[in-house]
Amino acid sequence: MDEVAGAIADPVRREILTLLRGTRRTAGEIAGQFEISRPAVSRHLRVLRESGLVHDELIGRQRYYVLDPAPLTELAEWIASFDTTTAWEHRLDALETEVYRTRREHRGTSADRNPKENTG
């Protein structure tokens, strides 16, 4: 997880991941999106490859880089563990369910106490 966190700490690497979302690209295509040197982009791709976030595929004479988001899962779960919103949503949902159940029971009890007379 530390290696993945270190890899995505850099804004250029995060942008490379965004570029690779849903498509594969050559190093030249990726480098063309940045104002930094091609060797610098290659170093960023190496870091991403070593962290498992990117892998390369050799197709013909071209080497394509492909996103592999699987290593992000552990990091995303760890970050989500700090989100207390979800816990509160569950508690509020439970409270809402209890309020509806209590109202339904109260209506049922009121109807039993005041049965309508058959006046017809």
TrEMBL record:
Residues 101-120 are annotated as: Disordered. The keyword Zinc-finger does not apply. It comes from the Bacteria. Residues 1-87 form the HTH arsR-type domain. The keyword Signal does not apply. CDD domains: HTH_ARSR. This is Metalloregulator ArsR/SmtB family transcription factor. It comes from Nocardia iowensis.
